Amino acid sequence: MNDKTLTAQNIEFAYDGQKVLKGVDVSLEKCGLAALLGPNGSGKTTLLKILSGILSPRAGRVMLDGADLQTLNRRQIAQRIAMVPQELHVPFAFTVREIVLLGRTPYARPLLGESTHDHAAVDRAMDLTETRALADRVFGELSGGEQQRVVVAMALAQEPQILLLDEPTVHLDINHQIEVLELVRKLNRERGLTVLATMHDLNLASLYFDRLILLNEGRIIVEGKPSEVLSAERVQAVFGAQVLVQEHPTKSNVPQVVLLPSDEN
Fold it and tell me: Residue 195: beta bridge partners?
């Protein structure tokens, strides 16, 4: 039985003639929990958008459970893959429940309104993300951490097999970063959700994800367990920073990256 749920094969993509992705091959294991790492401009978000069907590759293909993503329509893709963007811009005063209900759009029945199942899916998503108490609050008035949990709830209301997250912790303080990543790991462990997230923080990625995929200059450099991917030499070569890599003080086989000051200081 094939345990690969989403596979990118020889993916290439360019903006204005400049290649961003160059022959990328990557697979998501069913029920896997992976983080996509790399410097700014390395192609992380572009790859995530291609995996979600938002962008089409210039070459190569993406396979979802054996079907070419290009042969599926947006509705079919959205019923199986949910994407959480870095930011959700909401121009109107939508309540939290209204935002989460947007996750049911792939199942919309024109003229018939929401079904009992739609409302049950929204309730389930809000319970999983502990946002039920926020249901009547205006989304734009929430804290950053609360907003991120609501956006994850909206994605879960799609009842997807795969959850893709683009820098889910980028605008959050430390407490909310941990809160969101613990939620993501809980969904993976308890609900069997396949997860891929682009991450900026190497230490959080090492601490919360089982598998790391390192992308640089449009190519996959290495992938594997955090202890196999994060070495001082590799971090220095890819990110251009002097670092020390050591084991986490309370977690075995979890490397942590320590920044070293420049010799000039």
Answer: 33, 163
Which of 198, 169, 194 has the alpha carbon at shortest distance from 43? Answer: 198
- Tens place of pLDDT for every residue, the chain, 265 residues? 356 789 999 999 999 889 999 999 999 999 999 999 999 999 999 999 999 999 999 999 999 998 999 999 999 999 999 999 988 888 788 999 999 999 999 998 776 777 899 999 999 999 999 999 999 999 999 998 899 999 999 999 999 999 999 999 988 899 999 999 999 999 999 999 999 999 999 999 999 999 999 999 999 999 999 999 999 999 999 999 999 999 999 999 999 999 998 764 4
**CA dihedral for 139, 143, 149, 151, sign (positive or negative):** positive
pTM: 0.93
Please state which CATH class domain 4-226 belongs to.
alpha beta
d(CA 126, CA 176): 17
Strand, helix or coil for residue 110? coil
Q: Is 156 helix (H, G, I), strand (E, B) or coil?
A: helix
Separation in Å, CA 93 to CA 90, 140, 142, 199: 8, 7, 12, 30
| 213 in Cβ contact with 223 (< 8 Å) | yes
Q: Assign residue 181 a region (left: φ > 0; alpha: ψ between -120 and 50; beta: otherwise).
A: alpha
30, 33, 109, 216 from 163: Cα distances, Å: 11, 10, 24, 23
With a CB cutoff of 8 Å and minimum separation 6, the contacts of 185 are: 33, 208
Going from N- to C-terminal start, the domains of the chain cover: 4-226
Residue that has been written with the tokens 């459970």 in this structure: 65
